[in-house]
Design a protein that fits this description.
By secondary structure, the chain is an alpha+beta fold. The chain contains six helices and nine strands, in the order βααααββββαββββα. It is 40% helix and 20% strand. The longest helix has 27 residues. The protein starts with a strand and ends with a helix.
């Protein structure tokens, strides 16, 4: 979640002074304009990334899941007289820091090892007719459809560490400039 507040940028001191002078309704209007503009920027950024950022899918020769496009479509904003926020309905914490993923209710994470498994849980493949099994003592799940040879579908691991990827979201400067420009445009619109 990205939050936009009245302290948009150190370079917009005059804007900050103006925001401090207007009443609650005026601040909400300004924060709404800023948060809306930032939400549009984030949607555009995620949509653009979603057209080419498919390392895992490409490695497995799999169909991309559309994760970033779904995140873009679900991005919304809220505003009040105290600030604005942009809410992205996807776990994108690694835009800011490394992330370690651990299983919540299973003994291991299932990491796709084949195109058929990419973007699907093992239970989904089982529902599609795959016989899923774990060879004794191995750290992978295999599966086969009726009449086909078994193949490795998932690697099993206790956790996965994903490195920070700041490119997942617009830069801090882009966010600040977009928010400040939207507030200034709103002030000009009201003043004219």
């Amino acid at each position: 979640m990205i939050k936009v507040t009245s302290n948009i940028s150190e370079t917009t001191v005059k804007l900050g002074a103006w925001v401090a002078k207007v009443g609650g309704a005026g601040r909400k209007l300004l924060f709404s304009a800023a948060a809306n503009a930032v939400a549009i920027l984030v949607r555009s950024h995620l949509s653009r990334l979603g057209t080419w950022k498919h390392e895992s899918a490409n490695r497995l020769h799999a169909q991309p899941t559309g994760f970033l496009q779904k995140a873009a479509r679900g991005t919304v904003f809220n505003a009040s007289e105290n600030g604005g926020e942009v809410i992205i309905p996807a776990p994108l914490g690694r835009a800011f820091h490394d992330v370690e993923i651990r299983p919540k209710s299973a003994a291991a994470l299932t990491i796709p090892a084949s195109a058929e498994a990419y973007g699907k849980r093992a239970s989904v493949l089982a529902a599609l007719g795959w016989k899923i099994f774990r060879p004794k003592g191995e750290r992978y799940l295999m599966g086969a459809k009726k009449g086909e040879d078994p193949k490795i579908l998932y690697w099993l691991t206790a956790s996965v560490k994903q490195k920070q990827d700041r490119e997942l979201l617009p830069s801090d400067d882009e966010l600040k400039i977009t928010a400040a420009a939207a507030m200034i445009a709103e002030i000009r619109r009201i003043a004219s």
